[in-house]
Amino acid sequence: MIEAPTTDAAPPSAVQRWSASDYAKNGGFVQDLAGPIFAMLNPRPGERILDLGCGDGTLTVEIKAAGADVLGVDLSDELLAVARMKGLTVRKADGHELDFVHEFDAVFSNAALHWMCAPDLVIAGVARALKPKGRFVGEFGGHGNVAAIASAMRAVGKARGGNPALVAPWFFPTVEEYAGLLAKSGFTVQEIALVPRPTPLKTGMEGWLRTFGRSFFDQFAEPERTAVVNEALELLGPSLCDDRGRWTADHVRLRFAAERNA
Predict the structure, then answer these.
(1) Strands 90-92 and 69-74
(2) pTM to 2 decimals?
């Protein structure tokens, strides 16, 4: 049995709030670009799979369609409600406090692990949840992810007298850092890499900022909030917006597959 690593870390307080409608409108790229990581998971009929940070269940549906018995977990009541409307089995759970024991053949996570800022706790919970030789497959923000976007937000926040620390309730590790954390909790890493992935934003940068940077922008009341967003857009335009007004997010993803040791 794999024990949780000794740590004094506590799960951080959740600061990001989600709007299901905003996420559906501005976050479609999360699912649209999930093909490679879904192929790495390769869900099979009859497998028991945990979708960690399932959100509104878009990829959970695909896992279910492959014939797996899938459970989705997330902290957002609003996103979970949408997932339930899709006929999915989901549960509200904090990724830092998973209480499953040797239940799953695989744990899958897409674009969620960077919101869980005590990774030791998350990975230890995943290890406990997996059966021996179970696999942990995921993709999330890696080192350098949204560097330009976060820098612009910090600059605007500082100029406006806000709290720049609210820019990044994120964990963006290097390959070496995350591989070490996986090994510490008893995983053998089979594949891991940082993947630069400039992402075209169909609904523009403002939608991205208001959806994924909500924990930062919510510290300002309207009409100042809109002014702060506009100032961030002005800073970002020269590097992330082309001459036809098309925006790109400077994403860098960490993609991995690991196997729980016996």
Answers:
(1) parallel
(2) 0.84
